[in-house]
Amino acid sequence: MTTADLVNDELDKKYPKPPIATWKVIWRLIVYGRRFWIPNLIAMLFLNIFWQLPGLLNREFFNLLTGEADAHFGIWTLVALLFVGEVARLAGIWGLIQTNVPFFVHTMTLLRKNLLSNVLKRPGAKALPYSPGEAISRFRGDVFEMPLFALWINDILGMIFFGVIAFTIMISINARITALAVIPFILVAIGANAATERIEKYRRASRKWAGIVTGFIGEMFGAVQAVKVATAEEGMIAHFNEINDERRQVALKDALFQQILNSFFRNAVTLGTGAILLLAGQAIQRGEFTVGDFALFAFYLEFVSELTAFGGLLWARYRQIGVSVSRMYRLMEGAPDEALVEFSKVYLSGELPEITDIVRPDSSKLHELAAHNLTYHYPNTENGITDINLRLPRGQFTVITGRVGSGKTTLLRVLLGLLPRDEGVVQWNGANVDNLGDFFVPPHSAYTSQVPRLFSHTLRDNVLMGLPYEDERVMAAIHASVMEQDLVDLEDGLESMLGPKGVKLSGGQMQRTAAARMFIRQPELLVFDDLSSALDVETEAILWERVFTNQAATCLVVSHRKAALRRADHIIVLKNGRIEAEGQLDDLLASCAEFQALWEGDLEPATPPTYEAPALEPIPVAGD
Which CATH class is domain 3-341? Predict the structure, then answer.
């Protein structure tokens, strides 16, 4: 069994059925874009009505030439009718062009908007189920399939409309020849239905490997320096070639199988034409069939072939869209059943909506934050936090400290809803907070992690993140985060581009930029996870001083630095995911052995264990 086959089997088990039926997703898109979809359908029906005209005129033309039946029109009348039919078909095509693109763009934008908004609602510290490359393919390839299918429904409806008229005319001419001519198409349709499971299997694997290759390319470009330092270029290229070869094999199977099915569909018209030829000769001799009738049947069979081929393709694509829907819901894990197709306005023309200031209802003002029996354990481990109780009054500076791995960061993430709590209650001013992730955002709180996420935009954009504030307020936030001197040193000030992930800034500058992002939002609660870890002692002291110039500031801080511990109104000491002790600095220094060890360890860092590195073989140099 090849790697691709193993991936196919894995995917069959990995992606369950989505919570919403595939047909319902398509229907919701049609309803959403009905002002474009319905005119598109009308244009398609109009086009197919006038596609009948060439076949009927061909019949009249050959009957006129052979004299086998009465011709109702002269040659110039036929030419005029052909011209009229062509103009009408062009009008139908123009209607399709005017409605195809708007429907496509509006519905794709809605899907991407819903997909992104629900991805952003996932717990912030919970990893996505896909690599970045695979996640991008959900927004690109999977989203593309659904509006396309909705428009293809109009195509098949138009073909069916054409087919009903064609079959009616063919049966009225000769029912026996009509029945024999369509048998091959029925058999091909049955065969196509039997092949849908294999179609779905190949499409799953093709999309999977496309995502793997895309993700690897993104990671490779994001780690160019690391690759060069490790002189791993050849290994990276070899691995890329390996996964790209896997993708090629799977994509080839998918494309080849599709082409084989299409060839069956297309060749059915040859079989149908052969059936007509077998019976037409005798029928013509008996005067039951004319050369014009034969020309009409041959013309119609081409369209019946298209109908059969397109119907098979549509059914195969329907099964493939089911794969796309399940993968998109997997990316939106935990989203409501109809989250993917929830209606909302998309802005594709005209003025964009104004960005407003953060709404600050009276209930957002913090008087007291409390947590009771807060518990979370990482899956299949005992690591995490257990039975955490804390109380944070307004204006208090609380520091959480402890050894590495004691659960400090985990506690913050669970409290803020970035990790899903197993047990416990969080209260804001005495009221239970049910959805922590949605609640603990500005104006309620703002959070800076150990390694802040910056974007490849200007310093101003990284601070504002879309807010409509003037530079005066930006500069106040820059000052509060002790960034004013750094701003002078940056080449373009607030307009300085920070590069991918803020690569042009030092670790301390990245932390203070993220702090400025917090301060400008003026939240009720400031949450810092080891903010000062990359700051020198002097900068840290200035930063805390400026934080406390705002008497209303309420802070929850993870830190082991003395500057923060000395300023703390309350200190919580964690050990093995539980609260070991809590209180003020002097009390903990007098009564808590764990805190004493932490404090003394900060004063006199432990001597690292000696380690003798093994001798390395010299790297051979070209020419040695």
Answer: mainly alpha
